[in-house]
Amino acid sequence: QLACPLDLGCHSVLASSPEITMSLRINDIAPNFTATTTQGSIDFHNWIGDSWAILFSHPKDFTPVCTTELGYMAKIEPEFTKRNTKLIGLSADPVDRHSEWAKDIEETQGAAVKYPMIGDSDLAVAKLYNMLPADEVGADGRTAANNATVRSVFIIGPDKNDTS
Question: What would the 3-class secondary structure string for the chain be?
Fold first, then answer.
């Protein structure tokens, strides 16, 4: 059995295949995906490697609550790194906005975001992880209120299955 990072008393969330529309459950296989991030393109399962990963998502860039939360995670990222845990953020805005947002986060929160942030403007990852209904339209023109359910956290263990 794998130990959970930071003694959170959690189970690894290993999610289902994209064809399944039910919610993710503890011990499901985490869906793999390729995404553009602030650190380049990643294959999620390859990026995780033998680490734990925490995927946390936010509805829009530059909102006060999201900015505070990403800044806090940037401050405590070294504690996760010590525990073999990688952080990755997701927002329904494109990556070019994330780069500007990262500057704002550092300025207002006093911590630089060193973990990747996924640009999910087509909502592909949000839909894959069942944060939004499959028939939702892209993020253009959507507000933080429209994207409220994109606010999610997934703790993924190193024992995920690579489905690629």
Answer: CCCCHHHCCCCCCCCCCCCCCCCCCCCCCCCCCEEEECCEEEEHHHHHCCCEEEEEEECCCCCHHHHHHHHHHHHHHHHHHHCCEEEEEEECCCHHHHHHHHHHHHHHHCCCCCCCEEECCCCHHHHHCCCCCCCCCCCCCCCCCCCHHHCCEEEECCCCCCCC
